[in-house]
Amino acid sequence: MLWIFYALVKTGEGLLISINAAGCVIETVYIVMYLVYAPRKAKIFTAKIVVLLNIAGFGLIFLLTLFAFHGETRVV
């Protein structure tokens, strides 16, 4: 997801977006299949990790990148 975000911020990076989007789709399918067949305790643990790392971690990096860095500090 970070590579997709980087490619969206940078201009002319269509290949980077497409390859990493395909990787995100494949990984999402894998996680969903795991959650379908995993025991209940493993499902809960995996859901917590996904929410913590993907949503909170990526969200924090996204917000810091967009709002904390301006001018010459921000490399785009």
TrEMBL record:
Gene3D superfamilies: 1.20.1280.290. InterPro entries: SWEET, SWEET_rpt. It is a multi-pass membrane protein. The chain crosses the membrane at residues 15-37, 49-69. Keywords: Cell membrane, Membrane, Repeat, Sugar transport, Transmembrane, Transmembrane helix, Transport. GO terms for cellular component: plasma membrane. It is found in: Cell membrane. GO terms for molecular function: sugar transmembrane transporter activity. The keyword Transmembrane helix applies. Belongs to the SWEET sugar transporter family. This is Bidirectional sugar transporter SWEET. It comes from Aegilops tauschii subsp. strangulata (Goatgrass).
